[in-house]
Amino acid sequence: MRISGGRVQPAAGARRVVAVTAIAGYGSETLTAVRPSFDEVYAAHYADLTVQLYAYFGDRQEAQDVVQEAFYRALVRWNSVAGYDDPVAWIRRVAWNLAVSRWRKARTSLSFLRKQRRIEPQAEGPDPDRVALVAALAALPAAHRRALVLHYLGDLPVAEIARREGVAAGTVKSWLHRGRAALATQLDLTDSTGGA
Amino acid sequence: MTDRFEELFADLRAETLPTVRPPGAATLRRAARRRQAALSSISAVVAVLMIAGLIGIVVRPGGGQSSFNQEAPEPEHYSQAVLAEKVAGFLNAGEEAMRSGKTFTYIGPEMVTSRHELLGGTYEMPVTCFGSGDVAVAVHTTAVGKSPISTTYDHPCVTQKLTTETLLTVPQPSGMVSVEVTGVGVEPGEAAFGYLLQLSQDDRIRYQKAAESVLPKQWHTMQSTFLDGADGAQLPVRPVEQVITVACVGFGSLTLTVGPVDENETFADRIDVPCTLTSPAKWELRYTPPGKSLRTTITPDRTAIGRSAAAVSIAEAG
After folding, report:
1. Predicted-complex ipTM score
2. What is the pLDDT of residues A108-134, one digit of tens each?
3. Which residue among A105, B154, B246, B285 has its CA within the 20 to 30 Å range from the CA of B191?
4. Domain range holding B81?
5. Closest in B27, B136, B185 to A116, CB measured
6. Which chain B residues touch A164 with a CB distance below 8 Å?
7. Which CATH code fits A126-196?
8. Quick one: CA dihedral A111, A114, A116, A119, positive or negative?
9. What is the CATH number of the domain that holds B103?
10. Interface-testing mutation among A37, A64, A93, A100, with chain B (most B C-beta atoms within 10 A)
């Protein structure tokens, strides 16, 4: 068997296409693997991930610091990360690892992007009603808050949250249940169907 | 009610998303280039902070020369054998510890995760990285049903001996420690990362006492040990039937052999003993030595090494 390959150098923002031709026996077959470009993933997922971290921290600045650090780490090893089954999952994992790290605030590396952001356009925050939700989340234990955010904003199933957190699925269900109950109380949500 | 929460979070996402304006990818790239260029000076700063103890980490530089004054425009590539030998040397660890594969990582740009189920207690965790570049380290400690406690830091990969020590607390009775390692600007073959997880002396003694507490109160000789490897003793006894009782606290299992003290180190009997975290049991052998001494040997299996304590008592039968 002989394998030959070629790469097309992408323009900024373009998809990188790696075509591999495998020649075996008398026949040949061309396999085309599409790898997402960093710019694409950054543009498509930066805001969504920032919203998740904002809901967790209750602080936009802190959320953006962490998300930018996660994307920086992806950028410097993009050749590898782009080849993963789910590069966004890798970035999300790094971001959440940074989020729960006690040492995060001690990292000098985060400040360099904060300086950059001063020249970026700033926008208004969310509606006050949504701020109430973020404030209510902030009052929850960190594990409950993480479970709610990953479930409702990260769209992660219970099993994946459990894997990420290193706990049983039943524990995550309990966190979600207790988190919802606490939110319902704080936000004064009436329950006509029974149970939060 | 569940639908109401989905609605609430969906609204939060919908209203917040348009307000998030990421810096352009080009800005991120420029910042990344500056950061990469500054890596060597960052390493120096990190080293100074560590030495000063400002971030709770102690660095033990060895070899006497600064590791941060070199310029390495082209990172050197090493064979895996060289990397393993260097890391083992930096940690003053035997090849056996490194061969286990759990405490040694050939790093590249991908995240590599190692998991360890450990006895509760305080652990000293010396870490080192040989080669070039930096490594991002995340250590997560999790007790069953609890949220992980995480610590992350960057560690420089250097060619002079540099060991960083951290203290790690594993909850009782046991917990899971996962170590995530990612090379920053490191390609395979350019660096290797290693660490040890060493239970504190106080905790070792605590587990030894737990094993001792299971043994009969009447004995002629008693010994206890933390199972870092095989351990043996030659004990003076009368040539009458002896009852040898053993207990093990922790993970895995051990094999106790008993026999005469002779040049061939033969054994007359053996027993396999499971180690348990809670409610350890005692196990018994009976042996009549031909002379005025006998020899016992405890051999832990791989899963018990560094994670179990055992106690053995000897008493005359009857």
Report:
1. 0.72
2. 344 444 444 443 444 455 566 677 888
3. A105
4. 26-67+76-199
5. B27
6. none
7. 1.10.10.10
8. negative
9. 2.60.120.680
10. A100
